[in-house]
Sequence to fold (614 residues):
Amino acid sequence: MLKDKYKDEIAEILSRYPVKRSALIPLLYLAQREQGYITEASMTEIAGLLRLTPSQVYETATFYTMLNLKKVGKFHIQVCKSLMCALVGSDTVIGWMKNKLGITPGETTADGLFTLTAVECLAACGTAPMMQINDDYYERLTEEKVDRILADLKTNGTCPLKSGPYLWPEPANAVKRET
Amino acid sequence: MPKYELVLLKNMMQPGYTGSLKDYEQTGGYQALRNTLGKVAPTDVTGKVMKSGLRGRGGAGFPTGVKWGFLPKDYQGPRYLCCNADESEPGTFKDRQLMERDPHQVLEGIVLACYAIGAQSAYIYIRGEMVLGSKILEQAIGEARAAGYIGKNILGTGITVDVWVHRGAGAYICGEETALLESLEGKRGLPRVKPPFPATHGLYNKPTVVNNVETLANLPHILTRGPEWFAGIGSPPKSTGTRVFCVSGHVKRPGNYELPMGVTVRELVYEHAGGMRSDKPLKAFIPGGASAPFLTPDHLDVKLDFESVAAAGSMLGSGGVTVMEEGTSMVWAALRLMEFFYHESCGKCSPCREGSSWLVQTMRRIIAKRGQIQDLETLTDLCKNIAGRTVCAFGDAEVSPIMSTLKHWRHEYITLIHEAESANLIRPESTGARH
Fold:
């Protein structure tokens, strides 16, 4: 149950809004963080927490593409395919991914590590082609970079090539904020 | 290359600037807040913003001060400010930079706007994918709260403004202000029928202002340097101030360039963004995000201000300038954007929900060389039955790629159709019932 494990966090989320239902998307994110996707059980529990009907929760949950109602791989690779990225080679990037992972968009590798999705614009058009993997952006992709990212994620679960805080074009001597 | 004074990007372009509270304060940050809260009447703040000519930077370009002025004067209950950080318009990536590199500039603008409109709560609705941006903003809010710039009794003035970050979850339509409010209320992001407008019936049915990130980031500068200074930049009287133009596509140096409004596309593309990436000349460009109609090399000397771009048949929109070189298929480009709109249509209004699907199907048929000449009429007819017939502006936006490419590059559609006919590739299924 979310409410036992995340009692304080749930209370903090609820404190931000004068109307409970506003906490719905934040709580769905919490459920997704816990299990990798949003289960029916967690939606029922959230409905109870917010005094909504389960169908009200389901109605909202099914509208948003970032809320996964099905299991996804440990690393969810989302390659932008909108025009701005497509102009500079996003279809090629999707092609690399298909070859390297042996899956097509919408599929997950047999080991459950990678899910590949072709998505619409992620607001990084100046540094295209780009992709998002879980919470991180990877931009100005080349085949070498893609190889390194996939290898790093497999072995370390993280990759230093992730980008941001965003500034492009970069001036000389730019310093990044620690987060 | 002409050099202009940077306003919004000035801090972040300094060597060593991290966007921390300390860095921001050292560049004069939060001085506008210190000099305004409790010292200048809220109505005078609104008056200054009106006088500056500041217009919304999200896409619609509505005058900010006027928007604030719509709030009921005598309403006693809560009011809200929502910072629209749902940057999702294809071709636009400026708000992300403003938030991730100089978050306090945005926060100071938020507190100033709250003061002007009498709001005690502000929500920053940031697109869900920008996880890093939301973390940086939350960290900055923590810093500002500890320093007394946000929270209860700000700097001892008795004024309270609380700010929270609210993450969206992947829906372009939530950048539309009433869809944003629905989403913030925990519902599906479906735009509301207007009127009533958010100014009277907004978040939780209370008076609400929704302003874009870049719009809010301008406020500290307007209040510190004065509305006259701001109104002197750009193309006065209607397009004042700078604009962070986002350049993408086939240029040498894509990225964000802050320039006074009214610079020409030619200057932006060839001087600031380094020109075309290869020896192929420019074939087409979009001046203001995916919702803005395509323009041609004949429009390179169009000034990038609200009026001039509108007069050229497009719109300045979000400031996202996408450049395409010779050799790019305009039918393909229009289809790519149409697929975006098809994916993002929220489904509330039938013309948009059904029409976007039909447009994509018809365009795919033409690209696959299974098109017929009547398809062009079908496309035009569909577009005319979508634009202006929906609750929000999405309907007008989604037809612009097809309508504008049909206008300027109709021959490319016809060539594809002729190829289909001459190769006798028309298959039985494409001659049957037409959607």
Q: What stands out?
A: Chain B touches chain A through 70 residues (CB under 8 Å). Chain B is about 40% helix and 10% strand.
